[in-house]
Amino acid sequence: MHSIATRCSAVLSRGFGPSIALVKIYDTSTRSLVALPERPGPVRMYFCGPTVYQRIHVGNARPFVLSMWLRRWLIECGYDVTLVENITDVNDKIYDAARAEGIASTDLAAQAAAWYVEDTALLGLGRPDVEPLVTETMPEIVGLIEDLVARELAYEADGDVYFRVRDFEDYGCLSRQRPDDVQEQEPNAAKEDPRDFALWKGQKPSEDAHWPSPWGDGRPGWHIECSAMAEKFLGTDFEIHGGGLDLVFPHHENELAQSRGAGREFAKIWMHNGMLQLTGEKMSKSLGNIATLREVVEEWGRETLLLYFMTGLWRNPIDFSIDAMDAAASQVESFRNALRSGGAPSEASPAADSANDAGWQELVAALEDDFNTAAALAIFHGWRATGQHALLRRGLALFGLDGLEVEDAVPPDLAALARARVAARAAKDFDEADRLREQIEQAGWGVRDTVSGFELVRRR
Ligand SMILES: [Zn+2]
Prior knowledge:
Blueprint: H1 4-7, H2 9-12, E1 24-27, E2 32-35, E3 43-47, H3 61-76, E4 81-85, H4 92-101, H5 105-121, H6 138-150, E5 154-157, E6 160-163, E7 197-202, E8 218-220, H7 224-234, E9 237-244, H8 248-261, E10 266-273, E11 276-278, E12 281-282, H9 293-300, H10 302-310, E13 318-319, H11 322-341, H12 350-368, H13 373-385, H14 389-398, H15 412-426, H16 430-442, E14 445-450, E15 453-458
Parallel strand pairs: 3-4, 3-9, 9-10, 11-13
Antiparallel strand pairs: 1-2, 5-6, 6-7, 7-8, 11-12, 14-15
């Protein structure tokens, strides 16, 4: 029997090979650091976005933040970058949630997609270049399934269409499973093989939205949408495919099988971000106590959340806790204080310019080495401690943290509310104090108690 490495060598050797370019990214398929192509690339990136049926969890923000940071950084490096990040608006979870609420699944998906855009906009990092919806990609999805059927890599069974796993030689290479050990997916007696997965699902009475296809009305399986959307906007081959580590199997294994099986080159580098962990376990819906992205931004502010994400290497898990967020908040505070006390950006002398160049190269080296934001953060603290504010401003700006030094002018009516709150607390009228806090928060500000009374901080 061949080892996985031998069997998968064909699929694993499709990277860029030796390159003089220095930006290196850890690639799941080869389990190694892979260099990006020479500048200006292009670097075309596809990241899997969320399935939309409720406000997104803070954990779903990690791939969004990573992809937007990487896009900024690669553009700074001189790359021609295109980032596509889909929104899954057709899915079992959406049908289930809509049924429970007694509304149309398409209405729920449209509402939740708008929430997703609204909530990620709070991060102040801009938008991906394209954010396609499944419901807008049906012709391409059906076309790709027809290609697979024509190649006999897919077959119809009971109104569904399934991918024939045993006929795709490289199946299992991304997630490093031997073909015989691949876990069963989507149990259905009509399938030829328990490992086969659905490309198209025939309409069920419980599902209110459906689309026409050569196999009857129905809707796409989950995985085919990303193969179709990546190809529609990036072409048949592209540089980076990203998403959470929980997507390696089955989602990305299946995407790879579909696209390579249909004769496309598909992604060269697979970039999987680590999950957020709540007390050591993956934060999942079943754990309860879910923090939505919106709640976290409202509680701690966008800067603190962005800095928190910087503290971990993108592909490692990261603990999410109140302590971790408080620690991030105090780091933000240290940068804010340094920039505010450091005065306005000064006109740099030629000598300072060359020193800045050398300093900047230190940051470049950290980010070129697998986009190490934790190392970048340590460099920022070095610049803070030595008063190199021009460098610090430039570095923080890469991560969306360039507004830190701006003193927020407190609106007088909010200051009055905050003073009334101090008075209410002094009179032990805590209901009134809570009401005033809520009023301040609804205006987009937070209020903190301090030794001298209160401090008002803008939340976004
Ligand atoms: Zn996907």
